[in-house]
Design a protein that fits this description.
By secondary structure, the protein is α+β, with helices and mostly antiparallel strands. The protein has one domain. Helix content is 34%, strand content 9%. The chain is built from 7 helices and 4 strands. A 4-stranded antiparallel sheet has the order 2-3-1-4, with helices on both faces. α1 crosses α4. The longest helix is centred in the first third of the chain and has 16 residues.
């Protein structure tokens, strides 16, 4: 499988801080009517429709700005079709400059918070388990919300998870059987470009 062109580390780091700043402008909440396991139980025991189930999977909607909405549905497309990731990052950068004229990524470099996830589009089986257990942070195709997309590296889309949503991301990753979503600092990625890149940004070693 062909890898994406290696991203520039400095540019990706800049996109990380811009992603954090953009998402900080959103009124995030982690409050939901049901936790993921209880939601599944009600779906089974009360014969909910799939639409009823999905109506409670709403966390990711907080990080899907209309201004950044991709023009194409990449979810089930090969990685070569995910060109909108760098395009989205550039659009976010321009809009952030308009909203926060004094924003400088250099001023943010001591404040890296949150974690990174790696999503492999070509491994996706679209089983929906991660959507339910993450309460919609990942969608039915296991895709992280587009406001959090940072870059393409190897076979992966690199995305950011705000601290408030760690637990939901963890539950989604844990029930993803094909492993198409992982923490980007997972040991299985340590020798791949994306793992090395994340460690370099965080200044850590596995």
């Amino acid at each position: 499988m062909r890898s994406t062109f290696p991203p520039n580390l400095s540019e990706v780091t800049t996109h990380v801080y811009e992603t954090m700043a953009w998402c900080s402008l959103k009124p995030l909440t982690a409050e939901t009517a049901y936790a993921g396991p209880l939601l599944m139980q009600k779906y089974r025991d009360e014969n909910w429709s799939f639409a009823q189930l999905q109506s409670h999977c709403i966390l990711g909607n907080q990080l899907k700005s209309l201004e950044l909405k991709p023009t194409a549905d990449e979810a089930l497309q090969p990685l070569s079709c995910w060109a909108s990731v760098p395009e989205l990052a550039e659009k976010r950068s321009q809009k952030l400059k308009q909203l926060l004229p004094g924003f400088k990524t250099s001023a943010q470099k001591a404040h890296v918070i949150g974690r990174f996830v790696a999503y492999a589009p070509e491994d996706n089986l679209s089983d929906g388990a991660a959507e339910v257990l993450s309460l919609g942070l990942f969608d039915v195709d296991n895709v992280p919300p587009w406001d959090t997309w940072i870059a393409l590296a190897d076979r992966y889309v690199l995305a950011w998870v705000p601290p408030l949503l760690f637990g939901f991301a963890r539950r989604g990753i844990e029930v993803n059987p094909e492993g198409c979503i992982k923490w980007a600092d997972d040991r299985s990625l340590s020798h791949q470009q994306i793992g090395k890149m994340v460690r370099a940004m965080l200044g850590t070693e596995l």
